[in-house]
Design brief:
The chain is an all-alpha fold. The chain is built from 13 helices and no strands.
């Protein structure tokens, strides 16, 4: 029986990875536009609500079976909270105080948080020295961005940055929950179940906090809301699982470093946002932390050195 091909980053996988970074990076841009008229929790509801029928249609066209076990639907509800409702809401609220580019940079700590959380909670992915050093560098990058004033004064800007970090931590726990609670389920069905679960969670929260969603929104606002649902959520999940199958989880994590340039570029071009020098330095430190956590770059350098000697 022939072995399945080893996942690798071919040209098609690279193009899909760049496309995924673009649609995920643009979510910060779309949110910044929508926030002019729509509060953060309501944006989260729009994002998952409109993504549900799109993903439902994809699941139906692919004839993916719908699970009936209550345990699976309970797991979807938890996944919807950890991977959508909590992080989306924290990020969108954070963007009311800081710009989209900075939010995307802070969100880049997700990979380091994920390595630490899985190392602590999953036996098959132990917490290694490399992961600890990578996480430390990631936090150092965040500290550089926030600056020493964050320790002396506590304002909404600092709280917003902590909210983005809270979102990254929630994503990390979602990764563990997906491994434990949804192993063996069809990936696209997991995406559909997740957005359905987060929609159910967000409806009462929005009604209590923001009130019934307004429909008399500007065309640009509706365009941003539908784009963040159709592109940054539905299309993003299709790309995510296609890359995962073609290139593997390790290569998929590279998207973490590609998202901020897209978010920053859109913010600079269309929203007149400016990035302070410390944000760029912090991003570089976070990127170094990712490289240490991932390990492949330094492994190749060691291999090259070995070949030269």
């Amino acid at each position: 029986m022939p072995k399945p091909p080893t996942p690798s980053m071919d040209v098609k996988a690279t193009v899909m990875l760049i496309a995924l970074a673009a649609v995920w990076g643009s979510s910060f841009f779309f949110a910044e536009i929508a926030l002019r008229e729509v509060p953060p929790f309501t944006i989260t509801l729009h994002r998952v609500f409109w993504a549900t029928p799109i993903l439902g249609l994809i699941v139906w066209l692919k004839r993916i079976p719908i699970p009936r076990a209550p345990r699976i639907w309970g797991a979807y509800l938890v996944m919807g909270a950890l991977n959508n409702a909590i992080p989306f809401s924290l990020i969108f609220w954070g963007q009311t105080q800081i710009n989209s580019g900075l939010a995307s940079i802070l969100n880049g700590t997700t990979a380091m948080f994920g390595a630490v959380v899985t190392g602590l909670l999953l036996k098959d992915e132990p917490l290694t020295a490399r992961k600890i050093i990578g996480a430390g560098l990631g936090l150092a990058g965040v500290a550089f961005i926030m600056g020493p004033d964050a320790l002396r004064r506590f304002d909404l800007g600092n709280l917003a940055q902590l909210a983005i970090l809270g979102a990254a931590l929630s994503y990390a726990f979602a990764g563990v929950w997906g491994r434990v609670g949804l192993a063996g389920q069809p990936p696209l069905m997991n995406a559909l179940g997740m957005v359905m679960g987060s929609t159910l969670l967000m409806i009462p929260i929005v009604l209590m906090v923001d009130g019934p969603p307004r429909l008399d929104l500007a065309f640009g606002t509706w365009s941003a809301l539908l784009a963040v649902a159709a592109l940054s959520t539905s299309l993003a999940y299709v790309l995510y699982f296609a890359i995962l199958a073609r290139a593997g989880a390790a290569n998929l994590l590279l998207v973490t470093l590609l998202i901020p340039p897209f978010a920053i570029g859109l913010g600079v071009m269309f929203l007149n946002e400016q990035m302070k020098p410390e944000a760029w330095v912090g991003f570089a430190i976070i990127a170094l932390g990712f490289a240490v956590t991932d390990g492949r770059l330094f492994g190749r350098l060691r291999g090259d050195q070995h070949l030269r000697t």
